[in-house]
């Protein structure tokens, strides 16, 4: 039985060698790289290289993101390692971290927030559609670095069947403490989805802030 993710990446947008900016898009549980790439036309990323890793068996880790992290191993560490490899590949092409962007939905949003907070730096921006930091509690010892003003958008529904709003609030507070410029928006009874308002905010704050 395979117990780790292989590095399978589906690409779209500009070729990495021609792009100045990169968006790493991380799908949710039961989703696919193609699924998450299919929403990219809604974002102002036409000049970006788009990179979407594919989880083995379409899931990044087996249990809820609120489970003790040890229960989601070795899958969680493997998922984080895949994203780290992608970031290393991108920086090896001469693209600075401040031109690397992240976007995830649901399980992918949790993984996105977990990765960037464990490896905090000045990134281009982070968009988390319905997610929070991973674990039965926030394990502060896992997180290092300084976001140096990285814009972060976290949108979620209250209630959400998978992501308690309390964890979203706690994650926002924690990222702000690491100098992320976080915009959090909680939508009443939105459901487990991505809304047009969230897309508009991500474009305004993250992808095209000069508009």
What is the distance, rounded to the nearest whole angstrom, between the alpha carbons of the first and last residues? 49 Å
Approximately how much beta-strand content do the residues carry? 15-25%
SSE pattern, N- to C-terminal: EEHEHEHEEHEH
What is the count of DSSP helices, taking H or I runs of 4+ residues? 5
Helix content: 25-40%
The total beta strand count reads 7
Note the main sheet: 7 strands, mixed
Radius of gyration: 16 Å
The average pLDDT is 97
Structural class: alpha/beta
From the spread of the alpha carbons, the general shape counts as globular
Please describe what this structure looks like.
By secondary structure, the chain is an alpha/beta fold. It is 28% helix and 21% strand. It has helices at residues 33-37, 75-92, 107-118, 165-177, 196-207; strands at residues 9-13, 21-26, 48-53, 100-105, 125-129, 151-158, 181-188. Strands 1-3-2-4-5-6-7 form a seven-stranded mixed β-sheet, with helices on both faces.
Features:
single chain, 211 residues, alpha/beta, 5 helices, 28% helix
Write the layout of secondary structure elements.
Layout: E1 9-13, E2 21-26, H1 33-37, E3 48-53, H2 75-92, E4 100-105, H3 107-118, E5 125-129, E6 151-158, H4 165-177, E7 181-188, H5 196-207
Parallel strand pairs: 2-3, 2-4, 4-5, 5-6, 6-7
Antiparallel strand pairs: 1-3
């Amino acid at each position: 039985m395979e117990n780790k993710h292989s590095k399978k990446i589906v690409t779209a947008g500009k070729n990495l060698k021609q792009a100045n900016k990169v968006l790493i898009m991380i799908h949710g549980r039961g989703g696919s790289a193609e699924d998450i790439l299919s929403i990219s036309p809604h974002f102002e990323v036409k000049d970006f290289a788009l990179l979407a890793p594919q989880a083995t068996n379409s899931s990044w880790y087996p249990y809820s993101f609120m489970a003790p992290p040890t229960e989601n191993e070795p899958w969680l560490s493997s998922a984080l390692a895949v994203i780290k490899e992608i970031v290393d590949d991108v920086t090896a092409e001469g693209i600075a971290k401040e031109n690397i962007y992240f976007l995830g939905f649901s399980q992918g949003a949790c993984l996105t927030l977990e990765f960037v907070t464990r490896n905090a730096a000045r990134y281009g921006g982070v968009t988390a559609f319905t997610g929070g930091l991973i674990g039965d509690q926030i394990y502060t010892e896992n997180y290092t670095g300084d976001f140096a003003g990285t814009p972060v958008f976290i949108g979620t529904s209250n209630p959400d069947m998978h992501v308690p709003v309390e964890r979203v609030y706690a994650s926002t507070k924690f990222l702000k403490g690491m100098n992320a410029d976080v915009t959090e928006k909680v939508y009443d009874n939105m459901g487990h989805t991505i809304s047009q308002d969230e897309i508009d905010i991500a474009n305004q704050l993250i992808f095209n802030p000069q508009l």
